[in-house]
Design a protein that fits this description.
The protein has 314 residues and is mainly α. It has 14 helices and no strands. The protein has one domain (1-161, 204-299). Helix 4 packs antiparallel against helix 13. It is a multi-pass membrane protein.
Amino acid sequence: MITTIVVLYVAKMSKAVQFQDFDRSILLKIFPLPLLYVGNHITGLASTKKLSLPMFTVLRKFTILMTMVLEVHILRKTFSKGLIYSVGAIVFGAMVATSSDLAFDVEAYTFILLNDAFTAASGVYTKKKLGVEGLGKYGVLFYNALIIVIPTFLASAFTGDLHKVVTVITCTFSMCLCPKLVPSLPDHRVCFDLQAVTFQDWSKVTFMFCFLMSCIMGFVLMYSIVLCSYYNSALTTAVVGAVKNVAVAYIGIFVGGDYMFSWTNFIGLSICMSGGLVYSYLTFNNKSSESNTKETQEMKIHISEDSSKKFSNN
């Protein structure tokens, strides 16, 4: 979030990007995106902790169905039968896969379904807010992150995590600059109880470079999602994310050690992925046909204009 704020603020100051300056209307324009973003992350972390990676990937497919329903009711969109059938195949495959889940956990399934709902609502409202005057792609990213940062710091201070982070940073820099001063710090016992302080790679340039790059790539990921929603639909963004998880689902079967293999589950996974690929094919095929139709219409207009000019000259 901080990386997003810094990058976009510097870009705005250098006039590389443009979006509305902050005023009272921003809160109304951006609402409820920050709340949906926070709910998405909290439920996502909770469900990831309790579910195996393949099952987490499969249950996330219900986001696609929820996104389609929300787009119909909020954005007033309509979908072709082929797209509806492909989404139905994705959801059916998810139901087949979860029917053989031997590690069923009510709490985990509750969290993952809540996470699906938050993700679907966040995607649909992102698409809706992109059309709001004064925001655009960069305004949605910047003000969403800016509003979220404040309650995040407050929550960290309330839980004591902010104090731990400050202590870790203080002790780490103290050990790097002058190790003899560390015992004189008031919280040095807390420092050495924390594993983050004893982590040896804090002083390595390679680790710090990778750490900073992970922050930057987090911004790139968020920007890519918003950009995909800007040029496509929230449903397409959700399906593309599901297709991306093809490798994650199948690799998770062999890596991680917490996956219980069954043929029912494996067949359900395959149905999910097949439905996602069909949806992608239908979506991009429709777009190419629409662009060809527009080109032919433009050619007809030019031809009719040229013929009318010739007729008037004669």
